[in-house]
Amino acid sequence: MAVKTLTIDGKAISAREEQTILQAARENGITIPTLCQLNGTSDIGACRLCLVEVAGIPKLLPACVTRVGEGMEVSTDSERIREYRKMIVELLFAERNHVCAACVENGHCELQDLAISVGMDHSRYDYMNPKCAVDITHPRYGIDHNRCVLCGRCVRVCDEIEGAHTWDFQGRGANTRTISDMFVPWGQAASCTSCGKCVQACPTGAIFRRGSTVAEMKKDRTRLDFIVTAREKKQWIA
Amino acid sequence: MPGGGILVTTRTATVREPRNRAPAALTYKAGGVHPGRPSQAFVRPDNETRAGLVYASTLCRMQKETCMSSTVAAPSKTAPAGGAKGQPSGDNRYKMLEATMKRHQYAADSLIEVLHTAQELFGFLEVDLLLHIAHSLRVPPSRVYGVATFYHFFSLKPKGDHTVVICMGTACYVKGAAQVVSAIEALGGIKAGETTPDGRVSLMTARCIGACGIAPAVVLDGNITGKQTPAAVVDHVKGWLGNGS
Amino acid sequence: MDLNDLIEIAEKENAGAKPIRLRCCTAAGCLSQQGDAVKNALQQAVADAGMSDRVEVIGVGCMGLCSAGPLVKVDPDGALFEQVQPEQCASIIASLNGGGPASASVGSDDIPFFSKQHPIVLENSGRINPERIESYIATGGYQALYHSLRDMAPADVVEEISKSGLRGRGGAGFPTGLKWATVAKMTAERKYIVCNADEGDPGAFMDRSVLESDPHRVLEGMAIAAYAVGATQGFVYVRGEYPLAIARLKTAIQQARRMGLLGTQIFESPFDFRVDLRIGAGAFVCGEETALLRSIEGQRGTPRPRPPFPAQSGLWGYPTLINNVETFANIAPIVTRGSEWFSGIGTEKSKGTKVFALAGKVTNTGLIEVPMGTPLRTIVEEMGGGVPDGKVKAVQTGGPSGGCIPAAHLDTPVDYESLAKLGSIMGSGGMIVMDQSDNMVGVAKFFMEFCMDESCGKCVPCRAGTAQIHKILSKITDGLATSADLDTLRSLCEMVKSTSLCGLGQSAPNPVLSTLRYYPDEYQACIDGGATAEASA
User: Fold this and answer.
1) How close does chain B come to A97, measured CA to CA in Å?
2) In sequence order, which residues have a C-beta less than 8 Å from that of residue B187 and are 6 or more positions away?
3) Nearest CA in chain A to B140
4) pLDDT < 50: residue spans in chain C
């Protein structure tokens, strides 16, 4: 196992060569904001919030998929990056209809936390106000497309951990929507096992448990990580 | 020049070994199924067996519900079981679709090729047809729907008897293609991408058909015509709207 | 099949040629103007005049000057008939016999449009019949493949391409030799060759024309590449919008397979190579290489972050070499004539020639191939003949990923670096001339709408950012914007450019940024003066 040494924000650290910048940073208590990244599922580098600067490379690199390198000088918190992150969060808020006050996830929403951490108090951009549906045909869960940020965590968790592949995306660009099966209401999606992993995976109030109060809606991400780790290490075999 | 009639016969059957020999984890991860070996279709080595089985059973359930195909259980069978809604027994188009899928060995990665053939045969992609394809190729339905809606070439709605495709590439744009579009929109009372209520004419715009040298270009029922004016195209389309031919 | 067989086919083909040959363009541009009817009428006229023994009429690929189509060229005397109508054919045939001047208008190939060209990629276009492999072999076709397989080691081929200085013709200009060397160095059980013929840039039609006019040259280039890097399977990914190119490629693959020039044990060597077609389904983003690979795998064409590059992990995880149609079309001539010959053409950093699709407000529209470093002015004013009535305002290169170059910079030599310096890119080779009547804000909005619609929706800056940029541009053209919106626009463009996942998003703001840079007055005028004349985009 080869080890690489690098600096992140001036702090000298060592990391295993197969680790990503994000993993190395987290191990060393350096926070890089993320949204589409979810422990236990594959990394897709889509939300662009974890972009970092690496000395000598003109492009910004996504920390979640960039491997550590010997002598790398990573900067996760420059003026430029901070500004871009804030803009990305603002774009997300303007893209759909995120009304925190009327959201079941209020108080433990990853998007909300991101907004606070980047210091966003309003969006500089015009709200797009798209027409989005709320689907509560499933007996236990519901999906509110107004809150969806298209991070794809539900799609990956359903495919990679549960193996059902109920979720996928339809359309493209701003018209992308999360769909279940052949674009049928969730309650009629025959492939859904009602396992609830997507509920745990969803960073916002888009996928929620029905009949829960705001206080009860707190999601437990570690459960997903636990399933994957247990599976990989065969922890259920005595 | 036929619009895309040639697409059907794409002979890609020779790509055999790569698909079968590729490691399952890499190639067929998303679907959780292995197209080359149907008997193991729903068991993914690195997966929770329960989940895999549930997936299998739900697919089987769906299959019973729709009765579209027997190919999940017996993928080598050439003709679908028949007797389903929208599938008159002996419908040749299903046989041709089946032949295409067979030529691709029911490989999940031939999905786009199969969708091309299906659209060629049926004119558009109905949900039942997509389900049939999903079952035959053993691809999750949501993914088939996702692919069919990602690519603009595929249409989930029936097209009109005649089609006007107006190229909106840069060269056509600077030579006034937008005016042609608005003229036809006004004539038919429809927007680009729509079909007249009587189903006579569909108006579409294309990104660029590569006929920039003769801009603005308009494709009338599959025939490219160059150097068009709004008036000329309106005259042509009026003919379609007017008489029943 | 060996070299002697090739030569024999070539000799037979050349011996069969009749003294007078009429070449009719049957590429998509001329076909749409009754090119087919003209060809049939000429054949009929030849038969009627009883000249079938010494006159033949053949259908060929694109001759370049699409605006004057359908074109008919007469060998060997070189007369070029423009805008031929079927009823004029009898008089053309009569004129061959000395029966007075033809009624069709005769152009000349002495005009700068032709004389300033340096055809390498297009050398066979408009000369050979693209539907007959013998016609290609008669020009020395497939001998480069034979030469590579029999006389060169794979490493020699890579070396030769590296030395030639050829750079990718798809837009980014990555050194082709370096890419080949990377794939060649990978040890893998299997490797793939992919020809990117998903020519999505609006205003570009070079690849369509090459595939319609000379498909075998692309196949030969792919086969040489496969030998050099150790691949056995190739895919050509063609746009669904190009039915004729698809049909001709299909014919070409079949013919090559039948002759044993594709398939197993080519030229009785241990080298196997098969080529299959994949048809695109209308997604511009699939021109991006990782999206293209996903599309070949039957998935949604969404790009993924690089590294790993396709050269390391491409189709189904195997090393994959992806090159553009024009790049592959350059391979056979380099192998035949040597890297020194090739690197003698062009500029220091950009070698060889480039095919451009000249269109828009210019007299001669069509395809041209010029050495790298040719000044824009030569292309637009001399070869293109300038704007019919008016003055050149700007030249747009690189499609939705490129920018507008104002008339003041027309003396810029066309190469990768010079265009990048002006805020545009070489792109795949589309070149749209605009005149004074074109509103640059409208043009920027046109491209932004394109990028917004074609964004795959995976990454946030491209999905949401292009929509916001488009919204601001709409506000500007509707006369509802303020100066503050211009600042927002600028910062948003910079952000989308720096943070997007793939090339589509990274280059989507270029048309806006370049028009902001060269035509700030037009933006300001919209803000000061309310709505503009141009709001239809």
Assistant:
1) 23
2) B234, B237, B238, B241
3) A165
4) 532-537
